[in-house]
């Protein structure tokens, strides 16, 4: 049986497969994990092959522009939250605190403006703003592969007592955290930190991002 690392999505046949060192040695476990990997390829293919029709135009109107603005900044926010405990120097901690303060403020403003328009339809699609936000959050959770760390505008909100969710937070109303690997999986749109695409077709330029890519 081919190694797990020898599989690649059929939607990207030109990308070389990455070899994996180590991993399960049991034939049964390798077989099951390989099945899971191929199923994930199918999920990604389904996402790629189900575009909005007509294509989403972020510049069409205020609502579209706000939705487009909501796509990526929140991912960075959760990345800063996740990185902060691992920082060693006070300089780095101070930098991330400053970045996080502004990013969280931006996210709060965008979500508030979207929340105000939650019940409006995003023309010409059959979805409301709230439904769009949920679909975006579900996709980011799926690509991140680490459970729910993203929520739309209408869910079981604060303390599970209200459906409004103007700010996304965990069960203790604390900000969600993501690792660098999770962030890369999402912004690449591939679900893999070592498969570039999405907003970064050539991959990120930072040291951490580059460490996941083949040299």
UniProtKB/TrEMBL annotation:
One Pfam family matching this protein: Ferritin_2
InterPro entries named in the record: Pigment-catalase-like (IPR052965)
Full protein name: Desiccation-related protein PCC13-62
Organism annotation: Sesamum angustifolium
């Amino acid at each position: 049986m081919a190694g797990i690392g020898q599989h690649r999505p059929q939607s990207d046949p030109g990308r070389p497969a990455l070899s994996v060192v180590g991993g399960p040695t049991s034939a049964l476990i390798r077989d099951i994990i390989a099945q899971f990997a191929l199923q994930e390829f199918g999920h990604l293919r389904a996402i790629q092959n189900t575009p909005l029709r007509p294509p989403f135009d972020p510049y069409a109107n205020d609502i579209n522009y706000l939705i487009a603005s909501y796509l990526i900044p929140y991912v960075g926010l959760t990345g800063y939250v996740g990185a902060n405990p691992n920082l060693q120097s006070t300089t780095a901690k101070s930098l991330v605190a400053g970045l996080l303060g502004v990013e969280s403020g931006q996210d709060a403003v965008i979500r508030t403006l979207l929340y105000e328009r939650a019940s409006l339809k995003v023309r010409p699609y059959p979805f409301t703003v709230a439904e769009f936000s949920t679909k975006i959050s579900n996709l980011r959770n799926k690509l991140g592969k680490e459970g729910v760390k993203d929520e739309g505008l209408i869910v079981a909100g604060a303390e599970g007592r209200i459906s409004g969710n103007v700010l996304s937070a965990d069960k203790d109303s604390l900000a969600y955290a993501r690792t660098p690997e999770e962030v890369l999986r999402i912004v690449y749109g591939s679900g893999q930190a070592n498969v570039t695409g999405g907003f970064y077709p050539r991959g990120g330029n930072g040291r951490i991002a580059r460490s996941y890519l083949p040299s």
